[in-house]
Amino acid sequence: MTENQTDNEVEETYGLIGVGKEPGGPVEFPLNQVIPGWTEGVQLMVKGEKRRFWIPGNLAYDNSPNPSDPKGTLVFEIELIEIK
Q: pTM of the entire structure?
């Protein structure tokens, strides 16, 4: 983040490319379009870092009206390849 950026600008300008176990390799996610737990966690990472996120339901889908969304704690293993 530069001196002149606000938190909202960081959320909109940071991008995430994570390595998934699905075929096809890395996947890109704009941080303003993911669950709050991802947005918070990725902003604490540096390029090349690998982490396991334990995201509590209140920062994921617990309040979602969609009955097919997962409830409770979610666990992700990610690697931050690039910040755009």
A: 0.64
| Mean pLDDT over the full length of the chain | 76
From the CB of residue 76, how many other CB atoms can be counted at a distance below 10 Å? 15
Domain membership of residue 42 as a residue range:
7-79
Residue 69 in contact with residue 55, Cβ under 8 Å?
no
Q: How many domains does the chain have?
A: 1
Q: Residue 37: enclosing H or E segment and its boundaries? A: helix 36-42
With respect to residue 50, please indicate whether it lies within any of the assigned structural domains.
yes
Tokens standing for residue 13: 């300008």
CB 80 within 8 A of CB 18: yes
